[in-house]
Every structure is written in structure tokens, then in C-alpha cells.
Write a structure and sequence with these properties.
Blueprint: E1 2-9, H1 13-23, E2 30-33, H2 42-45, H3 50-53, E3 63-64, E4 77-78, E5 94-95, H4 100-108, H5 116-126, E6 127-129, E7 143-147, H6 154-165, E8 186-187, E9 189-190, E10 193-194, H7 197-205, E11 211-214, E12 217-225, E13 228-236, E14 239-249
Parallel strand pairs: 1-2, 1-14, 2-11, 6-7
Antiparallel strand pairs: 3-4, 5-8, 7-8, 9-10, 12-13, 13-14
Length: 250
């Protein structure tokens, strides 16, 4: 059984960032277990490919909800990524933060540090925004954000004008001062390719000697000593393996 300081189960939007941060100093060994395969697939890298990846079982868990009375008893399709980068490798790449009101409500409920203004520096540090830096946007971060406002289709301009006539104000930046209105999304792409959490965070970190990533590795059991999680049992290409965590299982 191999031992690592940290074991991260899942290389999705969160797991990719966690693995990158934990391995950055070089002091800790990190194992990442991903049930799916590589993100280096044509339809994953091509932005318009999400029309396929939303339903492709090769990269998608394709979860189904329970029958919903509000849907006349039908079930809903619940896509979730099953590959490096997780759902950030199959989604529609819209870059939009949560509502300020939600973050502020968390802080007001007794969670200091979770207000929107507290988190804004972290949001900005993530970004390398093509539109440039201002009080809301950041540059120089690992995640490239494409500004689509300079390549708007004429029909989209008509739509925005119609929305304005209907009383919906034009919003120049959904990640700016407010989120209501009609406008043009920013997207997580770079040079015409998807900018997933795997591409922005995990793949650069995979060059480090202290980070190991196993794909096609399905976690089947958390190993405990008393109430403490100390390792993971997983299937790797059909073979049962175990790994131990000296510090944490995440």
C-alpha cells in the first residue's frame, strides 16, 4: 500500500484546484483519483462540443433524477463530468459568479469571511480576464476568461435591443456590480479551446514530482481507523488497490 500525505477523490472543478494548491509548495505528496479518463478528447477541447459531452457516457455520469410531480412524473437529465476536470470539462463554459446576496447571507448567518467583498480578491486572483483588470475583474491568474463582447452576432445585438425595450437593462458585465439585465456572457476558453479546471490547474500541477494522478480509478471505499479516514480503496482498470493518507482524505 502506497502512502501519500493527501488523497483527493475526484479531479473535478474543486478537486483540480485542491490538488494544485496542496502540491504547490512541494512539501506534501498528493494522490488524485479520477473515476473517468483523460480530458484530451476532441469534443472536450472544442467549445461547441458540449452539445455532445452533455450526454456522452464516455465522459458523463448521466445521472437521472427521481420522477418529479412538477414534470408530470418525468425524470430530469443531470449531467456530471466523468473525466479530468469533471463538469468543467463538459459544461457550456459560462463564467459567472454566484449572487452577492447569497454570499452576504452566508456571512450574516454566522460565517465570517464568506461575504462577497471578502471573497472578491480570491475571485479576481483566479482570473486572467481578456477584458482587463478593474475593481471586479482580475488578470494574471491561471484561468483565462474570454471577453465575447467584441464578437457579437448581429442577431444578438437585436436581441439585446429588444430586451432593453422590454425593460431589461443592458448589463455590460454579469460579474460586475450587479447581475440583473441582458448582456453577453464571459466564457472559460483560451485560443479557441476549453479552459477547464484540469487545463488551468491540474495539468500544470501534474508536472510536479509530488503529485500523482490516476485515471479510470473508481473509489469504492473510504478506509477508517476508528472515526478517522486514513485511506481509500479503489478500482484501477478492474484491479482493487488501496492507498493510505498520512494527513487527509479529501
Amino acid at each position: 500500500m502506497q502512502t501519500y500525505d493527501f488523497i483527493v477523490v475526484g479531479s473535478g472543478s474543486a478537486g483540480s484546484v485542491v490538488a494544485e494548491r496542496l502540491s504547490a509548495s512541494g512539501r506534501f505528496s498528493v494522490l488524485v483519483l479520477e473515476a473517468g479518463g483523460s480530458d484530451r478528447r476532441f469534443y472536450v477541447q472544442m467549445p461547441l462540443g458540449y452539445g455532445k459531452t452533455f450526454f456522452d457516457p464516455a465522459v458523463n455520469w448521466n445521472y437521472r433524477t427521481e420522477p418529479d410531480p412538477g414534470l408530470a412524473g418525468n425524470v430530469d437529465h443531470w449531467p456530471r463530468g466523468r473525466l479530468l476536470g469533471g463538469s468543467s470539462s463538459i459544461n457550456a463554459m459560462v463564467w459567472i459568479r454566484g449572487a452577492r446576496e447569497d454570499f452576504d447571507a452566508w456571512a450574516a448567518a454566522g460565517n465570517p469571511g464568506w461575504a462577497f467583498d471578502d471573497l472578491l480578491p480570491a475571485f479576481k486572483a483566479l482570473e486572467d480576464n481578456q477584458a482587463g483588470a478593474n475593481q471586479w475583474r482580475g488578470v494574471g491568474g491561471p484561468l483565462h476568461i474570454t471577453d465575447c463582447s467584441t464578437s457579437v452576432h448581429p442577431l444578438t445585438k437585436r436581441y439585446l435591443a429588444a430586451a432593453n425595450q422590454a425593460g431589461l437593462p443592458f448589463n455590460p458585465d454579469f460579474n460586475g456590480a450587479f447581475q440583473e439585465g441582458a448582456g453577453i456572457y464571459q466564457i472559460t476558453t483560451k485560443n479557441g479551446r476549453r479552459m477547464s479546471a484540469a487545463r488551468a490547474f491540474l495539468r500544470p500541477a501534474m508536472k510536479r514530482k509530488n503529485l500523482r494522478v490516476e485515471i479510470n480509478a473508481l473509489a469504492t471505499r473510504i478506509l477508517f481507523e476508528g472515526k478517522r479516514a486514513v485511506g481509500i480503496e479503489y478500482l484501477l482498470n478492474g484491479e482493487t488497490k488501496t492507498a493510505r493518507a498520512g494527513r487527509e482524505v479529501i
